[in-house]
């Protein structure tokens, strides 16, 4: 019996990277997993992977920029598996890495929608189904970038700070329904990491050296178990918390100033 045996989980952005790692770990722990993903090919592939692991899986094409699409993913989980116990809000739609003064209103709106609004929509859609099951688990994703004020990510930092507020508000109000709501700030070898490593020789080694544990995280083996903890009965008395899952990177932090930006400008 796995830690999530007979539970139904929905993971947004589960077609790759950390979302895929979480979905695979959930399947290994006995959960039925809905892969809510915009990329049809990768979403279907992850569903096949989970079934090969002996799990139950459903791919639902989901665009987190559209409220009706997010709501439809929750409805599909309930229709296919009979309910919903766990919601993991992982997906977001990135914007170009440019300075704050060059971020457009459209970039800000896209980031706020794909993070805060998408999580809000999914949580509210999941609520009645979790109440019907006698409780539930919500795991939201925020970021260390908020804490260091990461350069070129002003819209992302703003949105992820909002995720912390949403997490705490829901934890405070939904405890009466036996629903726990927590957040994690993960760093791992996802799609962006591998892209940067391919484009920048030595990137992986430098990234590992920045962390007290001396290595970069694996989505399935390092991030997945923490999400399993928060999605299982082991965390039944934990809510409203935010966890770093980054090999200790939050301790030293990191300098994100681009090399081409001077210290002082007129």
Automatic annotation (TrEMBL):
CDD domains: SDR_c. Signal peptide: none annotated. The keyword Iron does not apply. Its EC number is 1.1.1.-. Pfam families: adh_short_C2. InterPro entries: NAD(P)-bd_dom_sf, Sc_DH/Rdtase_CS, SDR_fam. The keyword Magnesium does not apply. GO terms for molecular function: oxidoreductase activity. Keywords: Oxidoreductase. Belongs to the short-chain dehydrogenases/reductases (SDR) family. This is SDR family NAD(P)-dependent oxidoreductase. The lineage of its organism: Bacteria, Pseudomonadati, Pseudomonadota, Betaproteobacteria, Burkholderiales.
